[in-house]
Amino acid sequence: MPPSSKPATFKIALAQCNPTVGDVVGNAALVRAERGKATGADVIVFPELMLSGYPPEDLVYRASFLDAIERAVAELAKDTADGGPAVIVGAPWRGEGTNRDLVYNAALVLDGGKVVAHRFKHHLPNYGVFD
């Protein structure tokens, strides 16, 4: 690389938040507020289960709660159409197709106005507070 050329950069902002269990609307507002502060970042990363709060426990068995999560994700995804940083946010997430009745601990990537990717947690602890 010639001395005058600058390497490409990719800036990641990490959001350290304290979501409230069950307060999907309030937690989504925290995501929006932190994203607004992440000027100059390419992506902002939020904690595991940010939208539901941790641990969501039996809330993940309520269809109305999962519906609220889906609505919040859709709205947050729309926000990313503004050209600001992409968002990686944790939330309980329903499976697809015939697995719609399964709920996963997911990381969702929101960019360009939509959910562009999701990944499910593979190794879930099943002891103590995690059970």
Characteristics:
alpha/beta, 131 residues, five-stranded mixed beta sheet, 5 strands, 24% helix, elongated
Describe the structure.
With 131 residues, the chain is an alpha/beta fold. The protein has a 5-stranded mixed β-sheet. β2, α2 and β3 form a beta-alpha-beta unit. The longest helix has 17 residues. The protein is elongated and about 55 Å long. The model has no long low-confidence stretch (mean pLDDT 91).
Give the helices and strands, then pairings:
Blueprint: E1 12-14, H1 24-37, E2 43-45, H2 63-79, E3 86-94, E4 103-111, E5 114-120
Parallel strand pairs: 1-2, 2-3
Antiparallel strand pairs: 3-4, 4-5
Helix pairs in contact: 1-2
Spatial ordering of strands, largest sheet:
1-2-3-4-5
Main sheet characteristics: 5 strands, mixed
Runs with pLDDT <50, length 5+? none
Order of helices and strands: EHEHEEE
Structural class: alpha/beta
Mean pLDDT: 91
For this structure, the quaternary state is single chain
Q: Helical segment tally? A: 2
Distance between the termini: 52 Å
| Estimated helix fraction | 10-25%
In percent, how much strand structure appears in the residues?
A: 15-25%
| Number of beta-strand segments | 5
Shape: elongated
CA radius of gyration = 16 Å
Write a short abstract of this structure.
The protein has 131 residues and is α/β, with parallel strands linked by helices.
